Amino acid sequence: MRGNGMTVTELADLLGVSAGVAEEWTEGRSVPEEAMREEIQSLSELHDGHGNFEESEEDLTESIGCPGWYHRPAYADGGRDFGNAAAFAFEADVEVLAREATQNSLDERLDLTRPVRVRYTLHELTGEALDRFREAIQWDRLLPHYEAAAAQDQKVGRVIDAGLREMREHDRLVLLRVDDFNASGLTGDDYETGRFAAVVRRQLDSHKSVDGAGGSYGLGKATLWATSRLGLVLMNSTLSEPHEGQTERRLIGRLDLPWREVDGTPWAGPAWFGRPDPRVDGADVARSWWADEESVERLHLVRESDEPGTSFLIVGAHDVASLADADSTAENEAGEDEESVHRMHKRLLQALGRNFWAAMTAGDGGQPLLEASVRTLRNGVEIIKEERVDPSTTQPSRTRALQAFLNGTTVERLTESGQVAMSTVPLAVPGLAGGKKRGEHKAVLLVTDADDADGRPNTVVAMRGNRMTVRTSRVPDLALGTNPFQAVLLVGHAAGADAPLADEAEAFLRTSEPPEHNKWGQTEELRMRYSPSAYRRIAALTRDTNRAVRALVTLPKPERRGATDRLRKRLAVSGRSTPRNAGGAGTPVLDELDARIDTDGSWCVTAEVKIPAGVEFVAVTPVAKLDVRSGPRPVVAWSELVGVRNCELVDGALRFEPGARKATFRGVTDASTHPVRASLTGLVVELRSDKEKK
């Protein structure tokens, strides 16, 4: 072509292929089949009298160049960026990363009949394995830029300096890879609007393809770079739509550094690991390239299948939260290195279970939206086996509630343990600014008995289309004696395919979420797109949800009032008439007591405690006694004792939340410790302080 002045289009016409395929061959991104090689060679001989395809290919590859680092030159007007501002919207926390990255994968689910599969791989490199990886990413070319950035006394520079120091002192580097499968992949042109450009080239470009998408700001991808102490992320994508005639092993790397000066030359900030683009004149610009299998393996970016999706490799991954939680006095330096990946592994599992349990839940015979797992390697050897997140283990009560909804087995009222009650809550969806009210959307409310593994009871977890947990809130003003419960609020598409105004509810709530997508409330976008008062619809949704929950969990009044009154006469709070016996003035005292006798002969007690204002009280221990006709009151053991509201059980004692004025706990006595049947006794409950127990 160079010798004869032939264009790519002319070559494509001669060979009977598309111009795009011919361009891949001429730019060295792919190699023709053997039969096509022979035809090209015959054309070469026809035009210039000689031709060796292998030699021409080498010359062409040399002219195009191998993958390398291409840094953005400093701005001509002297402007300087000392870091990517988008990265500061989130903490350098693997829990935040898991939430944002998994949400993005959910939003790009390809085949809606199957789950998107996400796998997190922690990989610790040391020694020779670390040296080979640094060689693959051309570390020697990067090091001067890192050193220049680390020498600057500013936030990003200090983070980079810490990352370099750890790698140098411990000869250790942690990689965190996020793989998704059955996802769209980084499709589209290197520069024009599309998924690739939105992730690799642009900021604040969300480019979501579905109405129920979780993300809307285009900031979530910044958590990938924020989690890297070196600001470096490599990507390998298998595309759902061919680009330049190919779909597999599309590679690119992006480095986010602050402005720096290296050998007298100023650089703006970001850099890309790719091949130089010969079509861009007068500038060093790197584009993605179609890598061979060996290069992908050296960069630790091998994907386990040809299923569409993307692998993001975070180089120098760290987790500020897990390091803060570590007890440094109990670990030596070597142990701390090893424990850090174990802590990160555990926190990733917890984050996935807490935020995406609903997306991983399916009804009978159905498929979940998501499957997620975590594994940990050291120098290619698995040190923690791959663990798949099981929602029925991480959130058993809430999973039971959602499954009942999906299976159509909910009830109107809770009458037995394990049941799931369902109700609907109205959401008045406003119209866009200046428009009319859209109408009423029916959100679905589910309530079931609480299990200890769910965490704090008496809460409502709310979500919309992709079933990621958006908001968790306590239900206030519960009636005394309410059994611990968990509630789930499904809004928008999560409320079902036939939910009225689901699209409109999705759009409304999406604009009411901050970049963290962890609540619904007033936002700038909400004010601009709807009205300054639109957020009041969310307050009304919260109020109506709490009211509906209370209606479902409040115990119905017993029909046999006389029998209940007789039972209440057999209950007593020790020290009610003599506050000193209840622990003295200024200490928590029992205020209300409600109980029933279970079928096994145990007393089931719900008690409310008054806590004086301004008093710092450590802990009290509830004690149950049987009120017998004669002799001392025998103390009986608790088979169950839990904090219900504003308190928790720690080492057998109740500890109250700071500032709380009232608290509720629930207990069940151990019938095997009763010297007399409960039906023949009364019950006395008292609070003992640590001092009184001694």
Classification by helices and strands: alpha+beta
Helix content: 25-40%
Q: What integer is the average pLDDT?
A: 82
* Largest sheet features: 12 strands, mixed
Low-pLDDT residue intervals, each spanning 5 or more residues = 48-64, 212-218, 326-335, 557-564, 575-585
| Beta-strand proportion | 25-35%
Short description:
The chain is of the alpha+beta class and about 700 residues long. Helix content is about 30%, strand content about 25%.
Describe the structure.
The structure is a single chain. This protein is α+β, with helices and mostly antiparallel strands. 30% of the residues lie in helices and 27% in strands. The protein contains 20 helices and 27 strands. The strands form 5 sheets. Strands 1, 2, 3, 4, 5, 6, 7, 8, 9, 10, 11 and 12 form a 12-stranded mixed β-sheet that branches. A hairpin with a 7-residue loop joins strand 21 (620-627) and strand 22. Helix 1 crosses helix 2 (19-26), helix 5 packs parallel to helix 13 (333-356) and helix 7 (139-150) packs across helix 8 (155-170). The termini are far apart.
